[in-house]
Amino acid sequence: MQNMINRYPSKLVFFGLILLTISLVTSCKKNNVTPAPPTTPVNFATLGLYEASFGSARRVFIPITKIGNQKIAYLAIFDTGSSGMTIDADGILPASMITSTGIQMTGDSVNVNGITVTSQTGQMSYGDNLSTITEYGNLAYATITIGDENGNITTSRIPIFLYYKTMNITTGEKLASHYSDIFGVGPGVNYAMNKVISPLSYFSSKDITSGFKLSMLSSTNFSTTGTYVSGLLNIGLTNSDLAASSGFIMHPLTFDSLGGFSSNIPATITYNGQNIPAAVLFDTGTPVATIIEDKAATSTVGALPVNTVVKVTTNKGFVYQYTTGTTANLTQVQNPNNTFDFRTIFSIDFFVNNEYLVDYKNHRIGLKNN
User: Fold this and answer.
1) Would you say 229 and 220 are in contact if contact means Cβ atoms under 8 Å apart?
2) In this model, does residue 319 exceed pLDDT 50?
3) Exposed/middle/buried for 352, CB within 10 Å: 0-12, 13-18, 19+?
4) Which of 327, 338, 330, 343 is nearest to 269 (CA)?
5) In whole numbers, what is the pLDDT of the chain averaged over residues?
6) Is residue 52 a contact partner of residue 222, using CB atoms and an 8 Å limit?
7) Is residue 279 pLDDT above 60, yes or no?
8) Domains of the chain by start residue, with CATH
9) What is the pTM of this model?
10) 3-class SS string, the chain
11) Separation between Cα atoms, residue 305 and residue 215, nearest integer Å
12) Which of 161, 106, 113, 157 is nearest to 138 (CA)?
């Protein structure tokens, strides 16, 4: 028994009470101490991201500063539209291991600087049949440190895709090293290599739900040199994040046998007097234009005129409306019978006006107007 206090003196005052006193001396009683109030759970980490612009394209990047035991300094595209981390092996593996035809190794796996590179090869593709970027590489396992001197956190040992080359399949062009390092945070798995999932999904505990919350981006922070913006990314979700009072409208996700839980949300797109049923993806990895898939479209690709009003209404009542401009909210219309992609994809412009949340544990996406 803790906090035992003898409440009676050892010297007897009343001899006649000796037996009673001895009995009381051998007893114990806890102090009446008010218990400390319970601590409020907080996110695992709150990190800043970098907002950058390249002509009409805008990107948001997350710093990667260590893989295994190897210290590095790369920026990966923070991508809500894909799942899993991919990174160029250049600067991470010895140059002698990297050739134009693959990563050279013997046996089933090799450990280099705390990175386990396996012999399992694959491809990761992004885009659609009008523009496809494909990475070629190997499945690997390592701890990853995300963030930089402004704040960082390290994952457990997780699967990643380590690629040796990237090709623009549409043009046949080989792309520069680290051109397409991607930090995919979508709730599903990669179709080509289903062991690679979001690195953020590995952070969980009894009090913190596996997931993340992305604060609203700022249109004024996009710059050619990249602007560090603190506090954009909360890793892990608290009860307050998931409460109805948070303002997020939650959308349960459906399971697909190939890609796991899909980020596509049932919705209706309204533009030019038309109401189109759609499956919508809110994608930080789409850097320029929102792409509406319309079966009635007469051409493969067509840009909506400036000052066109576009509205999306999800099946859970979230509504987002914008007007197309000359440099922002650019929007194209495609016919899915030509592109073979039936998703309507909202570009990074969406995240300038809205907050976004992924609950990996309960398979939900939360959307919030601002």
Assistant:
1) no
2) yes
3) buried
4) 343
5) 89
6) yes
7) yes
8) 47-236 (2.40.70.10), 238-369 (2.40.70.10)
9) 0.88
10) CCCCCCCCCCCCCCHHHHHHHHHHHCCCCCCCCCCCCCCCCCCCEEEEEEEEEECCEEEEEEEEEEECCEEEEEEEEEECCCEEEEEECECCECHHHEECCEECCCCCEEEECCEEEEEEEEEEEEEECCEEEEEEEEEEEECEEEEECCEEEECCCEEEEEEEEEEECCCCEECCCCCCCEEEECCCECCCCCCCECHHHHCCCCCCEEEEEECCCCHHHCECCCEEEEEEEEEEECHHHHCHHHCCEEEECCEECCCEECCCEEEEEEECCEEEEEEEEECCCCCCCEEEECCCCCCCEEECCCCCEEEEEECCCCEEEEECCCCCCCEEEECHHHHCCCEEEECCCHHHHEEEEEECCCCEEEEEEC
11) 30
12) 161
Shortest CA distance to 197 belongs to which of 139, 148, 145, 236? 139
Residue with tokens 């046949």: 172
Measure the CA–CA gap between 137 and 116, rounded to whole angstroms: 13
